[in-house]
Amino acid sequence: MRYGYLLSLTAVTVALSSAALAQTSGALPTPHEACHGDVERICPTYPAGTEGAMKCIKENYDKMSDGCKDALTRAKTAGTMPQPATPAPK
User: Fold this and answer.
1) What is the pLDDT of residue 1?
2) Is residue 72 a part of any domain in this protein?
3) Does 44 reside within a domain?
4) Which of 81, 69, 85 is nearest to 34 (CA)?
5) Per-block mean pLDDT, blocks of 10 residues, the chain (90 long)
6) Residue 44 near residue 28 (C-beta atoms within 8 A)
7) How far apart are CA 28 and CA 26, in angstroms?
8) CA–CA dist 39, 46 (Å, integer)
């Protein structure tokens, strides 16, 4: 019985430690996460992640939030700039 209790306590401790580490790991938002609200506000006619939305972001870059600009700069520098989810219509 005591062994089961210790095992359960250990599992809970590991789970809580992992959650705390994930929150403090300093993971920065992706461009999609950081720019989603800006796209909805500035480019409402284009769904996020589409070629139209990405074109709208480029055309309205100066209107984007600092967080969005930072995420785009990081992605461009790292070579991980997102690609459109859907191509432009022909």
Assistant:
1) 52
2) yes
3) yes
4) 69
5) 43 41 70 93 91 93 96 93 69
6) no
7) 6
8) 8
